[in-house]
Amino acid sequence: MKTIALVILNWNGKSLLEKFLPTIINYSPQAQIYVADNASTDDSVAFIKQNYSSVTIIQNSDNFGYAQGYNEALTQVKEPILGLINSDIEVTPNWLTPIQNVFDTKADVAIVQPQILAYSDKNKYEYAGAGGGFIDKFGFPFCRGRLFDTLENKDIYASDYIFWASGACFFIKNEVFTSLGGFDSDFFAHQEEIDLCWRAFNKNHKAFYCAESTVYHVGGATLEQGNPHKTFLNFRNSLCMMAKNLPKSKLFPIIFIRLCLDGIAGIRFLLQGKFKHLWAVFISHFAFYARLNKMLKKRDGFSKSNYYYTNSVVYQYFVKGNKYFRDI
User: Where are the extended beta strands (E) located within 72-158?
Assistant: First the structure.
């Protein structure tokens, strides 16, 4: 059995598989490659069967989204290191060797993210992950190399410990993923990887950014450029994540402030004329209230108080004018 499993979650993504799967196969000889199909209605599965016999297909019974889709599929994967990779990722030669070296040399590391650069501009970090992720005191996520919609040039940030790794491409020890119960399927999609990393952090598992390994990601956009449903999921899931993971003494005060900050974000959408996004923020709060009791029941023991990198990335970016990670 190989050490690493690369698992690509697919839903109607034949065109992406045609474009990127050959490179993944060619540049990942030390990995067993899986495609976990979320009940696609195109001919993705037939395409893989006809062209790539070395790829193992796992067929989910429905489109479960990112979180439950991976949870369902990964029960069938036994390799000790799980590599979760989006179908719109282009990998590079020898990209897995530095990842394996991190796991081999750093016993405290359970999660590793490579450098994620933009496929459309390979000299810049990409929105979804960049040089590794952090959150502020109020749960707003940001990355080394990406604050809000400001992207920095590549190779600025060296390998180091981080708080969260991007769901676009990251690696996790199978035993740790299993012990944490996998992703929270109630999230469906968006921020489930941050929730997973936060739960891992509370269990003393560390995440690491490996700058020596590079991938290019096609996707990635600011919330304003995305659709309103993405806005809804991001706001709702961020609140749910905080309800699950914040220290008990800070739980409700911080969530209250976060709700106020979300209101300001809603006003910003209003002033920009983005009424569908404003509505998405509004209904995300009611969806959170409906789930609050359920989220509180998922709280699991000790929650660390040193989870955040800065008090407020919103204040740093919009008030102080610090547009780069290195300035906050």
Answer: 81-85, 89-91, 109-118, 133-135, 141-143, 146-147, 150-151
CA distance 243 to 222: 24
- CA 211/CA 304 separation, integer angstroms: 27
**pLDDT lower than 50: segments of the chain:** 220-224
User: Quick count: other Cβ atoms within 10 Å of Cβ 281?
Assistant: 25
- Is residue 169 within a helix (H) or strand (E), and if so which, with residue range? strand 169-173
Do residues 260 and 213 make contact, with C-beta atoms less than 8 angstroms apart? no
Q: Evaluate whether 187 touches 237 at the Cβ level (below 8 Å).
A: yes
The alpha helices in the chain, defined as continuous H runs, are: 14-26, 44-51, 65-74, 96-105, 174-179, 192-202, 228-245, 251-271, 275-297, 313-314
pLDDT of residue 82: 98
Query: Tens of pLDDT along 254-283?
Result: 999 999 999 999 999 999 999 999 999 999
When computed from its CA atoms, the radius of gyration of the chain, rounded to whole angstroms, is: 19
What is the secondary structure of 281-311 as a DSSP string? HHHHHHHHHHHHHHHHHT--S---S---SSS
pLDDT at 224: 42
Helix axes 251-271, 228-245, angle to 10 degrees: 170
Answer yes or no: are the C-beta atoms of 222 and 166 closer than 8 Å: no
SS3 track for 225-271? CCCHHHHHHHHHHHHHHHHHHCCHHHHHHHHHHHHHHHHHHHHHHHH
What element of type H or E holds 321? none
Query: pLDDT by residue (tens digit) across 71-117?
Result: 999 999 999 999 999 999 999 999 999 999 999 999 999 999 999 99
Q: Determine the pLDDT at residue 222.
A: 33
Identify the pLDDT of residue 1. Answer: 83
**How far apart (Å, rounded) are the C-alpha atoms in residues 314 and 261?**
9
Q: Which of these, 32, 35, 29, 31, lies nearest to 17 by C-alpha position?
A: 35
Contact between 126 and 113 (Cβ < 8 Å): no
- Rounded Cα gap, residues 166 and 130, in angstroms: 8
